[in-house]
Amino acid sequence: MKRFMSWLSDVFAPKMRKITGRPWIAAVSSAMQKLIPFILTGSLIFFYNVFRSYIPALPDLGKIADYSFGLIGLITAFMMTNQAMEKLKHPGYTINASIVSICVFMMFIRPEFLDGSMTFEFGRLGPTGILVGMITGLFVAIVFNLYAKLKFLKNSSIPDFVVEWIHNILPTLVCLGIGAAVVFYANIDIFSFIIWLFSPLQSFGQTLPGFILICFIPAFFYSMGISSWLFGAVTTPIFLSGIAANIDAVNAGLPATNIVTSETVFTAALITMGGMGATLGLNVLMLFSKSRDLRTIGRICIAPSLFNINEPVMFSGPVVMNPMLMLPMWINSITGPIIIWIVMRTGLLNIPSQLIQVGQIPAPFSSVMVTGDWRAVIVYILLFAIYFVTWYPFFKVYERERMMTEETKVAEQQVTV
Fold this sequence. Notes:
It is globular, with a radius of gyration of 25 Å. A hairpin with a 2-residue loop joins strand 1 and strand 2. It has two domains: 20-197, no CATH class; 202-416, no CATH class. Helices cover 68% and strands 1% of the residues. By secondary structure, it is mainly α. It has a two-stranded antiparallel sheet. It is a multi-pass membrane protein. Residues 8-394 form the PTS EIIC type-3 domain. It holds the Pfam family PTS_EIIC. It is found in: Cell membrane.
C-alpha cells in the first residue's frame, strides 16, 4: 500500500497535473467553468419558480432562463474558442475567433430559410446543444491555431491594420466555408450527427455503472489535489441533457427518469455531503478529536463543510495525498451513488426535475428543495450515518498518528527549554 501511495504521489499525480496544464485540456476545463454563471442564472429562475408555484401572482421570469441556460449550447461554442485562444496565447483572436464559433454553431443547428426568415429549433441552442457547442468551438480554435502557426505575412510591408484584417478574414473564410460546404452543400445535419455520435456516452452516463464512475473518478483525482473541473467536458453534457429531459418530461405530464444530473450529484448534497467524497462526517469527527491540531482544523472547517465546501478540510486535514483518509473518501464516492440510485429508481425518493444549481445550500434543506420530497431528510440521515461509520475507523488510526506526532513535538520543546 505504501509503495502504491508513493507511486501515486511521486509519479502519477505530477504527470496528471502536467497533462491538465496543457493548453487544450486547460482550455476545455476553463470553458466549463465560464459556463457556471449562465447555468446559475437559469437555476435562480427555477428556484424562484418553486415559490411562484405557491404564489401564482408573482411575475413569470421564464424568459430570463430561456436566454441564459436556454442558450448554453451557443455560449459553449463561444467560450470554448475563447479559452482555447487564450491558453494557446493568441490574444489577437480571442474575440474574433469566438464570434466565428457562434456563426459556425448557427450553421450546425441546421436553420431553414423561407421568405427571408430563418427558423430553427430553439432547443438546439440549449443544453441539448452543449456537445455541438464544444465540438464547434474546438473546430474553430484548431483552424485559427493552425493559421497562426503559418506566420503568414510576418515580414510583409503591408500596413499593420491590413495584415490584421487578412489574419482574421482568411481563417474565418476557412471555418465558414467548411461549415457551409458540409451543412448546405453536402446536406449533412451536423447537429444530429454529433448527438448520435456521442449518444453511447450519454446513455452510459445514465446507467448505474456510469453514475458510479462519474462520482468516483473526480473524487479519486481530487484526493490527489487534481481539480475535478478536468472532467467537466464529460460530465456537464450528461448532467445538462439529463435535467433538460426531466424538465420536458414533467412538463408533458410524464415522470422524470434521468437520475444522473448535477442536481442529484451536487446540489442535493446527498452524494457530496460536505463536499466531494462526503467529507462532512470526517469534519464532525475532527470536531471531537483527541488531537488538538485536528480538533482546531475541524472547528475552522466546519462552517464551509456545512455549505458543502470542502477545500479547507481536504487540504488542511489533510485528505489530499493522505492514504489513511483517501480510501474512505473513495469508498463514499461509490456507496453514495449506489444508495441514491436505489432509492430514486425504486421510487423512495423523487428524481430531480428542476434546474436548481444554486449552491451552496446546506443539506438536508437543499435535498428537500431539489427533490421536492420530504423523504430526502430520511435519506440524508441514513447516508450521513453510513458516511460517518466509513470515516470512523480510518480517522481513529490517523488520529493516533497525529497525537503521537504532537506528543513528540511537545517533548522536544520541553527538552529545548
